Amino acid sequence: MSTPMEISVNNPPDADVSVQNGDVPHSAPPPPPAVSDDKVLVSVEVCLKPSSTARVEDIRLAVERMLEKRSLSYIDGPIALPLDDPLLQENVQRIHICDTDEWVQNHDVLLFWQVKPVVHVFQLSEEGPCEDLSADGQLSSFNEWILPAKEFDGMWESLIYESGLKQRLLRYAASALLFTEKGVNPFLVSWNRIVLLHGPPGTGKTSLCKALAQKLSIRFNSRYPQCQLVEVNAHSLFSKWFSESGKLVANLFQKVQEMVEEENNLVFVLIDEVESLAAARKAALSGSEPSDSIRVVNALLTQMDKLKSAPNVIILTTSNITAAIDIAFIDRADIKAYVGPPTLQARYEILRTCLQELIRTGILSNFLDSNHLMLPNYCSLKEQVNMPESQEARTLLHLCKQLLATAEACEGLSGRTLRKLPFLAHAALSNPYSCDPTKFLCTMMDTAKVQHSELLD
Ligand SMILES: Nc1ncnc2c1ncn2[C@@H]1O[C@H](COP(=O)(O)OP(=O)(O)OP(=O)(O)O)[C@@H](O)[C@H]1O
Predict the structure, then answer these.
(1) Domains detected in the chain
(2) 417 lines ligand 1 (CB under 6 A)
(3) Per-residue confidence at 291, pLDDT binned at 50, 70, 90?
(4) DSSP character for 20?
(5) Can you give the residue ranges of the AAA+ ATPase domain (predicted)?
């Protein structure tokens, strides 16, 4: 058996994604590249408007032409649409540069001549989840989404981890799909398409699986024009109606099998909390659960094993148990990533993006030029601490220091709790209609302390 690729993550943040891309100043032209083969591949994602009926290929060529004409510095974030291009103006919702963070951190900035842009054009599905109701109309054993889905738009960017985790997951899945596409003989080189994310509750594992599926559906849409995500509700399979469970599993896998048979389909199967399968099996063996449950678990595992051999399936699993999970197919997961609680840097970044959103929507106002206010990210905050130039900069710095202190007070809270904190703080304000950011941050600190004490209880 091959050794799985272990990734341990403590969640410091990715690089800032909110920086606007700008033209390189003409006064300091960068030297031309010595060797053009050294170019860095950078993904450029182009989201079409829901109303667009343009051909993907036409848009791709138009965006490539646009990028050739511009002397961009490549930093993650949006690029303005060219006003003089009616095709793009009419059809494109937004253009985003993605995943430069790793490169940018090491090498400061990517200039246009160092980059070979890879343009991905996509349109979001607005269909929403298609739920499968079981016979009694109560339980659904799975949800199905057509990807890329509107519901998952922006999810990838909102998840903040140690720089590198998201990239490594993306690269792993991309390599697995490439090996499959090129027909690499699995007897000579072995790999599989099973991902296991494990770690404490609320660290974003489920969201990361969904966001990864969404990303891959965009990146691989020229090979797989159709893409689905099937989210298996493991709990519902172990309902008290065990007699129904066998049927639910059969029904589920028949549906997945049909999707997989279509070779232009890329199918993601997400099984949350896989440990519930192991627990059900154990309980059944010890006699404390109906023996039906063991049949259901075994049926599920057999089906998963069968499915694994299909080239166009990626199985995504999550678990809240960090210790080894006693399930055969999970043992074979090639990528096992530990997703831990957010570090100080990640906590600051999560709270900063929350605050920035409250400023954008006008809930926090009343200070500086809040319309254009950009709160510095963790790395640039460290640089700015020693040199606040103006009164305005000093006020901003004070605010960020307060934010940092709140992030420090949030040690031990999960990403899920952190994302809720600003809402809870707002609800606790004595006057929510006049929201002074300094006062707001004080309330947020108090709220964090309450959350913390609840955690200890
Ligand atoms: N590292 C993070 N960065 C940003 N947001 C996060 C992070 N971790 C968690 N969150 C927030 O918490 C929410 C809940 O996460 P999710 O349900 O995916 O976690 P989970 O690990 O699967 O939890 P559980 O095991 O309890 O189901 C996410 O939608 C996201 O808003």
Answers:
(1) 14-122 (no CATH), 130-339 (3.40.50.300), 345-456 (no CATH)
(2) no
(3) low
(4) P
(5) 191-343
